[in-house]
Amino acid sequence: MSQVHYQQLNPIRLPIVNKLYKDFYPAGKAKRDETLWIGESQQKIICCVRFKHIGELQLLTGMLVAPEYRGQKIATQLLQHVIAQMQQKTCYCFAFKELEALYQHAGFITLQPQQLPHNLQQRFERYCNSGKKLIPMHYNAQP
């Protein structure tokens, strides 16, 4: 595989990321008020992650690696490149259970739903009630 270059997305490229979501994660859609990070290989976006700002918090959401690049540690590398972003504001994520170890390796700790801030608890319940099997996690920034 070619070298992957990770960077914050220039908002003008939002339609390209949304095409990636439409193709591989239809429930995800990037919005202009979110901070997005991408990984590119050979001028092609192969992964992305969004940070939704909710008051003084941020929610890491919509992490996607194109199927042909999965199993190559791309998600791990992407998470390493967004550490500064995760440290800017208190950061949470709602991870699929099968990805818990990936996020733990990146510095997230697993929470009980009642440990989430109230506005995130409601969002978490909505997502779970729609059939998603998620676990709440909090980024534990190391000094």
TrEMBL record:
<dbReference type="Pfam" id="PF13508">
    <property type="entry name" value="Acetyltransf_7"/>
</dbReference>
<keyword id="KW-0808">Transferase</keyword>
<dbReference type="InterPro" id="IPR016181">
    <property type="entry name" value="Acyl_CoA_acyltransferase"/>
</dbReference>
<dbReference type="GO" id="GO:0016747">
    <property type="term" value="F:acyltransferase activity, transferring groups other than amino-acyl groups"/>
</dbReference>
<feature type="domain" description="N-acetyltransferase">
    <location>
        <begin position="1"/>
        <end position="142"/>
    </location>
</feature>
<dbReference type="InterPro" id="IPR000182">
    <property type="entry name" value="GNAT_dom"/>
</dbReference>
<protein>
    <submittedName>
        <fullName>GNAT family N-acetyltransferase</fullName>
    </submittedName>
</protein>
